[in-house]
Write a structure and sequence with these properties.
Number of helices: 3
Shape: globular
Number of strands: 7
Oligomer: single chain
Helix content: 10-25%
Length: 157
């Protein structure tokens, strides 16, 4: 039993998430500064998420976002660290229920208040995308930081 007394639990998942978010945040803020991009950070109930957005094309409207809002979008996803486009929906416009998308979209799209016709860009830390799970079908490594360029075609509540 003396052998096990010195062992510590190294599976502190919240600590691992915080550590990776700190790494991702440094990479994102350096990218924004290097490219002279003025972006707004998403705040979730008083907590800085590390997700940033810019509105490339603003439109007006009064649509609100909830977890059950259905959105029709065109988008591309680019790996921030390499610039490689890993997903592009140029040929079609998929429809999603916002609550079923990655957390980065849920928080970023709602915070941007993008309306039909708007174009937004989201800078999403790995925790709010696919986290420590590689996505080999997309060519994404674990802890991939993504840039999403999104055009909103329709919003249905």
């Amino acid at each position: 039993s003396a052998c096990f007394a010195g062992c510590k639990n190294t599976n502190d998942v919240p600590a691992q998430i915080r550590a990776q978010l700190a790494v991702d945040s440094k990479i994102i803020t350096a990218y924004l500064a290097t490219n002279n991009i003025k972006a707004t950070m998403v705040d979730s109930a008083g907590v800085a998420t590390g997700i940033y957005y810019i509105i490339d094309t603003a439109t007006t409207g009064k649509d609100l976002y909830t977890s059950s809002t259905q959105i029709v979008v065109g988008y591309s996803a680019t790996l921030l660290t390499t610039g490689k486009v890993v997903i592009s929906t140029d040929q079609f416009h998929p429809s999603y229920v916002l609550g079923a998308t990655i957390r980065g979209w849920q928080l970023g799209i709602a915070a941007s208040k993008a309306q039909v016709g708007s174009r937004i860009r989201l800078f999403v830390p790995s925790h709010y995308a696919y986290g420590p799970f590689a996505q080999p079908d997309l060519g994404l490594p674990a802890n991939a930081i993504l840039i999403f360029d999104i055009k909103i075609y329709n919003i249905v509540n």
